[in-house]
Amino acid sequence: MSDTLLNVKSVETYYGNIRALAGVDVEVKRGEIVCMIGANGAGKSTLMMTICGSPQAKTGSVTFDGQDITRMPTHEIARLRVAQSPEGRRIFPRMTVFENLQMGASLDNLKYFDEDVEKIFTLFPRLKERQAQRGGTLSGGEQQMLSIGRALMARPKLLLLDEPSLGLAPLIVKGIFEAIKKLNEQEGLTVFLVEQNAFAALKLSHRGYVMVNGKVTMSGSGKELLANPEVRAAYLEGGHH
């Protein structure tokens, strides 16, 4: 079994005639947290969506756990236990917290349902307190916890996080990133996240990539990129310390 879980090779993705990804290479090994940082509009979210099959890559390939998923429909990719917490959270606002978690549970793992819910309530105690509340009445931070919790209910081999810190207060971000770290350390969960908050993402990640205009321009360990003067000038100046 290869230790590479996700391999994105020379991927180009288009929206109509506009090239959003220009030959992207990314590798995520089992048990790693890897981040992709970059400015707004760099193509980070497009990469996430391409991994999930919508839109599909025009050229290049996406391989997950040894299987080519480049042309697979999104629901089949999800069945391989790739779970995504999308940008903007996208929870079900009219359903309760508990019902949202039920929606995330994979059908073939219902025997673990109670155990999994308990695990999410331990990870995010706020959700336990609010389990009977409608998703739409939660704060932004609680909705983000719910979005991640819902993705975890699928027992993913790979968790994709799209801008988990967007619009959240620093203290909430810290709590969410600590929860991700804990999952990785205690359960070996593999995580790939795209994030504008470069400082938080690089501190959390084993390795990182920098994306500019649909191309990967740099990669290295989280520590290397944090120390890199170009990265510091572009993404870390302005008080993210």
TrEMBL record:
SMART domains: AAA (SM00382). GO terms for biological process: L-amino acid transport. Keywords: Amino-acid transport, ATP-binding, Nucleotide-binding, Transport. Residues 6-238 form the ABC transporter domain. GO terms for molecular function: ATP binding; ATP hydrolysis activity; branched-chain amino acid transmembrane transporter activity. InterPro entries: AAA+_ATPase (IPR003593), ABC_branched_ATPase_LivF/BraG (IPR030660), ABC_transporter-like_ATP-bd (IPR003439), ABC_transporter-like_CS (IPR017871), BCAA_Transport_ATP-bd_LivF (IPR052156), P-loop_NTPase (IPR027417). It holds the Pfam family ABC_tran. Belongs to the ABC transporter superfamily. This is Branched-chain amino acid transport system ATP-binding protein. It comes from Rhizobium giardinii. The lineage of its organism: Bacteria, Pseudomonadati, Pseudomonadota, Alphaproteobacteria, Hyphomicrobiales.
